[in-house]
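debug: dumping io for the single-chain case to check the tokenizer round-trip. Nothing else runs in this session.
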Amino acid sequence: MIKCHLSRILGERRLKVADLVRATGINRKTLDRIYSEEVTRIEFDTLEAICKYLEIGIAELYEII
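debug: decoded output
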């Protein structure tokens, strides 16, 4: 199982999904699904944009449990 830490990271930084949408241009529905851990796959471009905006590595965003 893979755990996404986007909700925790955004919460710690007091950011909203809307902030991420504005900064990255990623579709709101896509980010909502990532935030809610409902995705089964993710585009590398999307992953890269999220990590660059948050200034984190992939391992900080996703974890294998």
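debug: round-trip ok. Residues 2-64 form a domain with the 434 Repressor (Amino-terminal Domain) fold (CATH 1.10.260.40).
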